[in-house]
Write a structure and sequence with these properties.
12 helices; binds iron/sulfur cluster
Amino acid sequence: MSKIRHNWTTAQILDIYNKPMMELLYEAATVHRLHHDPNTVQVSTLISIKTGGCSEDCGYCPQAARYHTDVEGNDLMTIQQVKAQALRAKSGGSSRVCMGAAWRNVKDGAEFDQVLEMVRTINKLDMEVCCTLGMVTENQAKRLAESGLYAYNHNLDSSEEYYKEVISTRGFEDRLKTIDNVRKTNVTVCSGGIIGMGEKTEDRAGMLVALSTLNPQPESTPINALVAVEGTPLEDQKPIEIWDMVRMVATTRIVLPETQVRLSAGRTQMSREGQAMCFFAGANSIFAGDKLLTTPNPEIEGDMELFKTLGLKPQKPFTKKEQPQTIEAKDSKFEAMGEKPKWTRPDHKIERNELAKQNRKPLK
Ligand code: SF4
């Protein structure tokens, strides 16, 4: 087994990222084989349980209320709607459901109670349940854990330096604090980021430094390629080349050897051959379903055809860690505390975010 290191530096990660492609692929594929079955890929389905109307200013996100995009907001879905979608995902080969809500942070109250009930419902379908709900306190993380949550997603998005060029309404340190709160429970951590936002290669390496120095390292890491949506501050970003994605996946595999590396947003822009190369480079998880929150994604039938061509099989649920128990609400040990945590609001000015809010473009 290659050792898990928590002391990677940006320079060391850049050396890996910039290796000749064939050497990089060989090294990543070797690490992959030491830690995982290379013919098994986890399939997750993302359900947007509450879409749009978000108060944040994340420059890549069409769900931010302040930008002028076509996203139609909806209220929190019902438990029955979510259960129906989860059952469809299970019959299509998904072992995990990730529920996303466009919230800055979780607030105690009826909506969070409803999400906890959704977690209980899906865990009872014997699927891994993940949530991505924004910042959470320790008590909220514990309530999610006792409902049967398997994973919590909270992306670092980019390096700490470039994060400030993309988001001004929430701080990088709060991302780390939320991950720390989740780590006080038995819920696994899913954290990754986005490439193609105009960042430098050093920022990609910087994000991997931040993820690899977490101890333990995240159990899953989504690598997203920006889907530039009209109306968002990043609408004019050119799609990244497949080689950038392959390099990023391979480098992630080497510095996070035990983590499930997930191909996430941007897969519709990748050829089948490009995706196959990412699997060879160490990706072993995908998001399935025709939508990723609000952006397009390949249909599950197409994914299953690709799996057949490549001889890949979907990973069974609870392969990496046993199924958590669900504690019913009436037996819960943790009550809503009505907390009002002071999450950071740096509120520095990001010009392109300001212009997108006013529906104007930067001068060329
Ligand atoms: S990424 Fe999340 S927090 Fe940021 S604007 Fe979109 S929904 Fe809100």
